[in-house]
Write a structure and sequence with these properties.
The structure holds two protein chains of two kinds.
Chain A (H helix, E strand, L loop, with lengths): L6 E2 L11 E4 L6 E2 L15 E4 L3 E10 L19 E7 L4 E7 L6 H4 L5 E10 L5 E9 L6
Parallel strand pairs in A: 1-9, 7-9
Antiparallel strand pairs in A: 2-3, 2-4, 5-6, 5-8, 6-7, 8-9
Chain B lengths: L6 E12 L5 H15 L9 E5 L10 H4 L6 E3 L6 H14 L6 E8 L16 H5 L5 H16 L3 H16 L12 H6 L2 E3 L2 E2 L8 E10 L11 E10 L11 E3 L7 H13 L8 E3 L5 H10 L8 H7 L15 H5 L3 H17 L13 E8 L3 E8 L2
Parallel strand pairs in B: 2-3, 2-4, 10-11
Antiparallel strand pairs in B: 1-7, 1-8, 4-7, 5-6, 8-12, 11-12
Helix pairs in contact in B: 3-12, 6-9, 6-10
The chains are: A mainly beta, B alpha/beta.
Chain lengths: 145, 385
Amino acid sequence: MTKTAREPVAGDLFTDRSLVGGRCESCGETFFPWRDVCPKDHAPGAVRVDLPRTGTVWSFSTQEFLPVAPYAGRETRETFVPFVFGYVDLPGACKVETRLDVPAERSRELVGIGTEVEFVTIPFDHADGRELTTYAFRPIRKDPS
Amino acid sequence: MSRGTDLAIVGIGIHPFGRHELTAQQMAAFAIRQALANAGTSWDKVELAVGGSLDGGQADVLVHELGTTGLPFVNVLNGCATGTASLLTASAMMNAGEGRLGVVVGMDKHPRGAFSGNPLEWGVGSWYGETGFFLTPQFFALKLQRYMYEHAITERSLALVAEKAFANGALNENAWRRKPLSVDEILASPMINDPIRQFMICNPSEGAVALVIAPLEDADRYTDTPIRIAAASLRSRLYGSFELFQTSLPTGGQPSTPTELAAAAAFAKAGLTPSDIDVWQVQDTEAGAELMHMAEIGLCAHGEQNELLASGATKTTGTSPVNTDGGVLASGEPIGASGLRMVYENVSQLRGEAGQRQVAGDPHVALSHVYGAPGISAVTLLTRP
């Protein structure tokens, strides 16, 4: 099967493996996404770092209706499927705001606070026709034993 | 801030909140005329004015309607804190000797549906909006979900907040939502952002509020019931505080919230404590915001809200009445007018003019609190001299 070459929704947010954040060289603060000036001590020159691939859900919620602009997903009122989002606490780094890749109707059960989740990329079909990817976290699949 | 002359609110006016044919400017002119009449004075006597609006146009254009007298008229915009920022600005101008009779006005008229905007103007990338994060209710839902987890707050408590809001709104001729709703109806309404349901969250609306202010020593020229502005404080967020539109947060604990900072500043300035407050108006963008802000401003401890709400303590008949006019839930939120609506209600309560909503016990001290993007809060304390 040929892999479709989807582009990320924005450069500098993530790779296939993890989110890309920034770390301040002077105070050590880690944040997402990367920016030159540290949001904590305002020193310039933050370096890019791969953020941890796994973490725990800090909070979550559901988006039950089609968001208004600037949302740019391709869905219509008729085709929109509610999605789940939240903050994931990445140990030793920061909490990141993210989509949580589980069905909205099962969110309380699948991504309750404290659930262990891992980084994934998911398709994002832009209203302008581009087929992109964005980042998300998903409950860590337990190996069947 | 050094203390200047004691200032008082000597007149109040309001254009009912809701959906109207009028422009924001027309509603504001209505509110100003009512406030001036309430103070027994007229526009030509006004020596300074401050006003604000997000979508309703520039407040100083009102001089075309009210009179081009050459007075200083400053426009202010601070999101949901616009009204308090206007009151602060007018107070500072008065203390700086710009005039001895001032008008403060807030007005707005928003498009229907959820608030929208350009993420780039809020310091986040366009991808943030494109992928569905640029929605203010999402923040309140995430803050609330975490808060309910940490403090064992129940969904029933959220419904009790909303039930109270619509019950109070039904008694307020200036409210928008005037139909009482039961806890069961609220809990059966569609989910918007888990755990927030349709009847637990406000909508943008329209309306205007005006205040007339003067030095307390001049107040008896205008009214028998002056209300002293004991403090008005506005604060923005500290690093690491969980606020709207944040792609990441530090791990670990959080600093004081803007609400906690603004409340502490206002109480210190006024020499008052939460135990002095007789009536409270707090930002209730959604039902959970009311109960979280109750703890942040010192009305109760974190986690006490289930018990307080179940006992009816925050009803107009309770020991700590909250959002006696129905709050944002029953009034909707015209951004520029919303904070001044709370001040209007507190003046009405302290004057003993709140009719069927009047709280018992001869209230002397009232607090109002606003919160909004990008993480600002303002607290105003009023006292009856």
